[in-house]
Amino acid sequence: MDTREKDIRTWSMLCHLSALAGFLVGLGNVLGPLIVWQIKKNELPEIIPHGKASVNFQLTLLIIDIIASLGFFAFIGSNFISSPFPFGGRSSTFPFFGGFIAGGIVFTIINILGLVFTIIAGVRANNGEAYSYPFAIRFVK
């Protein structure tokens, strides 16, 4: 394998794994792949599909996280608005804790799947293979 092929594989992998910056910086999961892709796309055009796939997947995760968070807080808010006794008394606490648990579970599962699929994509890119993320909306074509 020549130097150019190694560079292509390395930068393709970084297009995917730079999404892990989201653990350190807000929106880093979208900005990391976008920055890597934009910096290297002219020098190594072979990474363009990896950059697009990674950015599309991270944007999809961001939208799902926003929707799950809104649902999470809507359940909490609806309990406070609908009941004069939000934490007990004559009122049921299920809407509060049910929404809290359901929203938290959805949020957690989506983010764990995002982490797993991101790592799989990075490994595949480093092996020189293309990876198609499941349930990714194609925002960037």
Tell me the number of strands.
Answer: 0
Q: Give the topology string: H per helix, E per strand.
A: HHHH
Instruction: Based on Cα principal axes, name the global outline.
Output: elongated
Termini gap:
30 Å
Mean pLDDT: 85
Word description of this protein:
With 141 residues, the chain is mostly helical. 68% of the residues lie in helices and 0% in strands. It is built from 4 helices and no strands. It has helices at residues 3-17, 28-40, 48-82, 94-126. The mean pLDDT is 85.
Features of the shown structure:
141 residues, mainly alpha, 4 helices, 0% strand, elongated
Give the structure's gist in a few sentences.
68% of the residues lie in helices and 0% in strands.
SSE diagram, text form:
Elements: H1 3-17, H2 28-40, H3 48-82, H4 94-126
Helix pairs in contact: 1-2, 1-3, 1-4, 2-3, 3-4
